[in-house]
Input
Amino acid sequence: MISIKNPSQIEKMRRAGALLHDVLMYLRSQVRPGISTLELDAMAEKMMREHNAIPSCKGYEGFPYTLCTSINSEIVHGFPSKRRLEEGDILSIDTCLILDGWQSDSAITVPVGRISAEAQRLIDLTEECFWKGVRLAVAGNRVGDISSAVETCAKSYGCKPVRALCGHGIGREMHEDPEVPNFGEAGHGPRLREGMVICIEPMISAGTWQVKCQSNDWTYEIADGSLSSHYEHTIAINANGMPELLTYPEFSWETAEFDERGVPKISQNDSQNAEKEEKL
Ligand code: MF3
Ligand code: CO
Output
């Protein structure tokens, strides 16, 4: 059953999303060669708790940490560890929190120091897959429209969406209906309508779409060891039927400028850098 949220519930989800955005942008600024993912996990938990939020991955079906930190060929649900990040790694940070009873969920993939051109291309095309999907997340369209746009975009670069895991509805629960796969057919699946809140989360492999689970029973990696990338936002279909990015509050469809791929010219990362430069 797909739950529909009223405007005051969406306002609460907006606050949760804004906090999660701040947490992820802070973590992004802390990623560098030599830091461990366990240190990032501690920072995230502290920041969430300081803002009266609950780190909702921690304890979810027994998951032991605040963050899912997945490195290189790991696609999702990586365990933070003492392992230090190395120059050239790509790190996906995926996390959820609950604020005032409402969940939020977002993921970014971050370069560690200087990375290869192939790795940067994979990060960029994963974000492009998200933007190709989210612009179709308007009232009246169907979930399959998003899925097919993500898949088509990935394949246009010779990359594959992972099939074992998918996006989802979100609200009081982290995972609600509907499922939002990263592959599928346009015109199929549940119809989107005002008040639905979903997570769109392309998980893209540079090689095979097949995954294997590590011995911790949580972490998925790409079966052939290829690099992979993940990008996710929580979005609400608002009163004018448009997808509002709850975990990217400074983005607005009215004011954003898009490049020829349909990706905002100012990325989440650039706007943060711009802010930093202003402060210097
Ligand atoms: N953010 C993940 C998702 O999109 C949730 C991770 S599962 C958890 O579904 F156990 F880590 F919470
Ligand atoms: Co999710």
About this structure: Residues 103 and 273 are 27 Å apart (CA to CA). The helical segments are 7-30, 37-50, 117-134, 143-156, 268-279.
